[in-house]
Amino acid sequence: MRCRSEGESEGGCGEEAAEHTADTLAGVSDDVREQLGTLPRGPGVYLFRDEGDDVLYVGKAKSLRARVRSYFNRGDQRLGIDRMVGRVRRIEVIVTRSEAEALHLEQNLVKRHRPPFNVRLRDDKSFPYIAVTASDEYPRVMFTRERHRRGAVYFGPFANAKRVRETLDVLNRVFQFRPCEGPNPGRHSGIPCLDFHIERCTAPCIGAVSREEYRAQIDGVIAFLSGDTRSIVRELERKMREAAGGERYEEAARYRNRLIAIESLAERQGADRKTVGTVDVIGLAADGDRAAVQLFPLRDGKLIDRYAFHLENVEGQDRATILESFCLEYYTSAPRVPPQVIVPCDIEHTEAIAGFLSRLRGSAVEVRAPVRGEKRRLAELADENARLALTHEATAAERTRLRRVEALESLRESLNLESLPVRVECFDISNIQGRDIVASMTVFVDAQPKKAHYRTFSVHGLEGQDDFASMAQVVARRFARLRDGGDTGRHDASFSSVPNLVVIDGGKGQLAAALEAIHETGELPRVAVIALAKREEAVYVPGSPAPIVLERHDPGLQLLQRIRDEAHRFAVSYHRQRRDTRAFASIFDTLEGIGPARRRAILRHFGSAERFLAASQEEVEAVPGLPAKTARAVFAQLHRTGGAP
Predict the structure, then answer these.
(1) Predicted confidence (pLDDT) at residue 434 exceeds the cutoff of 70
(2) Rounded distance, CA 619 to CA 182, Å?
(3) Quick one: 590-640 is in which CATH superfamily?
């Protein structure tokens, strides 16, 4: 299409443009077409919503009009875009003053809505941290995966939980902070624990160390985790020399051992690059729908750790967009933002990320791709590590896939099944002396758990403990839902799916009960049914008096055991939940100021009535959504009534 030159009339070109637009927007609904014609041209954020008004995708743009229209006129060729665009029924836009502001808003909206077509960072909430409860009179230093505790200083996130625990062990030997839980040190007996006698604690509980001295120990921990090892090493060397000079050789040996431990830990934490300063170095590798990110945090020139991340849903995204999505996800939950972030050498136009990170930090953050020197070498190293991580994940995924295929083939051959057991359902019963009888149904598809299809059952109308009748009732209810399909008005994707294999946790009795229940249900697709007995790990099949005994290392048997153990775990978990709910109900009947919402919050936080009753006041105050005043009142009520030990 030719654009008019200055002085030409607008008629011909305008008609041609209108015709071109009509062609490219063919197939777009009238409502969406009307919204596309009213989009603003400035920067902002756009949300694509489906027929149910759920958010499909959140994005930001320098020009909302140009960016959003590119999805509908085939200007965006990324894989899966056609599938997403076909579901869009409403476009929502939010205009901002700058691209950096749009980036910040995009991050908040992605966090809130978790859209299915946005890049996802896997397991972004489960990384380990080291927490120092600085607001306590005698602070603790502990491993945690949560960051909501008030008055605590957090270090991390770390990629390896084992290394975090090893670091804590070394720090405890050097600084001898208290390992006991709760805001106050010591036990009710007033006698120091074993850690004091083996020099793992300075026993503030009995006054063996003053508050100021203990605080100095904690300051040393914080200094070390912040990257300052030199001052700690110099202090330990000074004390060692003084002890040796005073002929206190055992004391000097203890300082020597602590010095060796701290130097060894410092060496493991990275090389010394004084000229680099405090930066985060990010490496990125992408292949198809997967991407790997390696982040090297350097503090005062010391590489203190290496964090590895994997991202999904990235196919068709350019490297700059993937990096931007990662920074939004990671730095929002990171404890601190460094003054400089080094990105891969091919990344350009980092102004929006820099503006976003500057807002988070509260001061200027430089984001740049280095062209020479040590920082470029670090960037290349991070990129190389990301490529290796991506290759390793692909290799591991392929090995896992082959093992799954081998297990399914082994099951089909060993059990003489008509088809490959692609979908396997397993049933288990859980109760205590006939009370609160419950059952679980776990589902494995392609030899992997499909947790969205797990279901639980409450068994009704039975007197006492009768595992056979319980299994018959549960299996009958499950296959009645399959028979009825959607006629009941309660469509369920799990119950409407036909299993290739049903596994019953039990022996011949449970198998017979399940088969009779399926037979009485009526016309159903052919389904293979077996039972797996716990003690002898023997497989019972219909029509055979003797069980099938598989080799202990047979991949098919190992898969069956995995499925059975998962069903048992899920049933026991549901049974425990029923008991805890009943126990919580009786506890909360006597507590003032606790309604249904706060009851659920407490139950989610503690998980069981026993943990709630044993909790300290600080732990009760840490419940998300529970005001501090209410938490103190609840703790006082529990102790006043003797509810807590």
Answers:
(1) no
(2) 8
(3) 5' to 3' exonuclease, C-terminal subdomain (1.10.150.20)
Q: Enter the tokens of residue 443.
A: 């589902």
CB burial class (10 A; 0-12, 13-18, 19+) of residue 95?
A: middle
Residue 489: which pLDDT band, with cuts at 50, 70 and 90?
A: low
pLDDT at 11: 39
Cα–Cα distance between 422 and 578 in angstroms, integer?
32
* Token duo for residue 208: 């063996």
What 3-state DSSP class applies to 28? coil
| E-assigned strand segments in 357-399 | 366-368
Q: Using DSSP, state whether 531 is helix, strand or coil.
A: strand
Distances (CA, A) of 100 to 105, 461, 544: 9, 62, 70
* Residue 260, pLDDT score: 79
- Rounded distance between C-alpha atoms, residue 627 and residue 562, angstroms: 42
3.40.50.1370, 3.30.420.340, 3.40.1390.30, 1.20.1250.20: CATH of 423-576: 3.30.420.340
- For residue 488, what are the contacts with CB-CB under 8 A and spacing of at least 6? 481
Which position has the token pair 């999805």? 71
Residue 593 confidence (pLDDT) above 80: no
DSSP element (H, E) containing 282: strand 279-287
SS3 507: coil
Domain pair 279-392 / 423-576, same fold: yes
Question: Which tokens hold the place of 597?
Answer: 């919402």
Which residue's structure tokens are 């350097």? Answer: 298
Report the SS3 class of residue 19.
helix
Sequence spans of domains, the chain = 24-117, 279-392, 423-576, 590-640
Predicted TM-score (pTM) of this structure: 0.51
pLDDT at 440: 92
Q: What is the pLDDT of residues 111-154, one digit of tens each?
A: 778 888 888 766 544 567 888 998 888 899 988 887 777 788 88
Q: Which residues contact 539 (CB under 8 A, 6 or more apart)?
A: 414, 415, 530, 531, 532, 533, 547, 548, 549, 550, 557, 560
Instruction: For 2-47, write each residue's pLDDT tens digit.
Output: 343 333 333 334 434 434 444 455 556 777 887 888 888 888 889 9
Task: Please say whether the dihedral angle defined by the alpha carbons of residues 23, 25, 28 and 31, taken in this order, is positive or negative.
Answer: negative
The whole-number pLDDT of residue 441 equals 95
CB neighbours (10 Å) of residue 303? Answer: 19
Q: How crowded is residue 630: how many other Cβ atoms within 10 Å of its Cβ?
A: 18
pLDDT tens digits, residue range 157-175? 665 677 678 778 878 887 8
If we measure between CA atoms, which residue out of 407, 409, 446 comes closest to residue 553? Answer: 407
Omega cis (within 30) before 157: yes
| Calpha distance 447→422 (Å, rounded) | 7
Is residue 557 pLDDT above 90, yes or no? yes
Close Cβ partners of 377 (under 8 Å, ≥ 6 residues apart): none
Its CATH class, for the domain covering 279-392, is alpha beta
Q: What is the mean pLDDT of the chain?
A: 81
Euclidean distance between the first and final Cα of the chain, in Å? 81
Q: What is the 3-state secondary structure (H, E, C) of 314-348?
A: CCCCCHHHHHHHHHHHHHHHCCCCCCEEECCCCCC
Q: Which is the CATH superfamily of the domain at 24-117?
A: GIY-YIG endonuclease (3.40.1440.10)
Mean pLDDT of 358-384: 88
CA distances, 7 to each of 2, 3, 10, 16 (Å): 14, 12, 9, 18
Q: What is the pLDDT of residue 357?
A: 92
Contact 324, 103 (CB under 8 A): yes
